[in-house]
Amino acid sequence: MKNCEMKVDYDLIIIGSGPAGLTAGVYAARHHLKTLVMGKLVGGIASEAHKICNFPTYHEISGKELIEKMEEQVNKLGIKIENEEVIEIKKEKQGFLIKTDKKEHNARKIILALGREKRKINIPGEKEFLGKGVSYCAVCDAPFFKDKEVVVIGGSNSALTTSLLVSEFAKKVYIILRGDRLKGVPAQIHLVEKNKKIQIIFNSNIIEITGKNKVEKIKLDNGKEMNINGVFIEAGTIPPSKLAEQLGINLEDGHIIVNKKQETNIKGIFAAGDITNNFVKQVITAAAEGAIAAISAYEELSKEK
């Protein structure tokens, strides 16, 4: 690399430790780049998946197990994975300064693999009863609702998957959605519709969650109240675009715009996974984009020698 005035800690810092970030770490290691992976939750949303049935080599595997295998591979290659939250990124003469909630790092190149965040529905009781009956993670919390009655908010594939998982424990599961049809994968819809524990309530919205020390009731916009023990919220996801906005990265509906090399409009910054504007949001495509981003970063670094 060229001589520089400031000390650079890493060739590459990967922000995000989901499938895109972890795969980028593997490819960075194989290209002998001094690399750091950082993220608040290793695996991101993928780690919460009850079952993944479309990842090559596995007929069926839990998200947690798949991420553990990815993490193990990264660790064996000597790449550190730090539990740090990035607060700010500043462009420096020779690279970037990354400020986290714990320390500061310097890197010549950055890959943003920020994934997605669960969308809140912002109704009374949602925040107050989080962890007291309100949940965004069925894999984490479904076993706590054995023989209970719960609702799942949403009609997408994630809501259907959550309903099927929770039905293995709960005695009754209500799917409440504002539309008039389910929008998941046909195979999932079929499984939900034939499950006798699951009842679908169309064209309805929950407007309030109530209780004393835990969830006890929900109120619907049609005036109906239901006695309920738990509420699983599956209202979709949103891209965490704050860092990209700070850097002046071009966005499309909150997603980072990238080219075929996973490059952004800011030289030295690449992006991969669900945070990008690419069409398919799957573990396999996130991993592929992570690989491309790492190779692209290596090529750019090689030209700067």
What's the layout of helices and strands?
Elements: E1 10-15, H1 19-30, E2 35-38, H2 63-76, E3 80-82, E4 86-92, E5 95-100, E6 104-112, E7 117-118, E8 134-135, H3 138-141, E9 149-153, H4 157-167, E10 172-176, H5 186-194, E11 198-201, E12 206-211, E13 215-220, E14 225-227, E15 230-233, E16 237-238, H6 242-247, E17 251-252, E18 255-256, E19 269-271, H7 283-303
Parallel strand pairs: 1-2, 1-6, 2-3, 6-19, 8-15, 9-10, 9-15, 10-11
Antiparallel strand pairs: 4-5, 5-6, 7-16, 12-13, 13-14, 17-18
Helix pairs in contact: 1-2, 1-7, 4-5
Can you walk me through this structure?
By secondary structure, the chain is α/β, with parallel strands linked by helices. It folds into 2 domains: 10-116 and 239-303, FAD/NAD(P)-binding domain, CATH 3.50.50; 134-233, FAD/NAD(P)-binding domain. The chain is built from 7 helices and 19 strands. The strands form 5 sheets. Strands 1, 2, 3, 4, 5, 6 and 19 form a 7-stranded mixed β-sheet that branches. Strands 8-15-9-10-11 form a 5-stranded parallel β-sheet. The protein is elongated, with a radius of gyration of 21 Å. The relative contact order is 0.18. The model has no long low-confidence stretch (mean pLDDT 94).
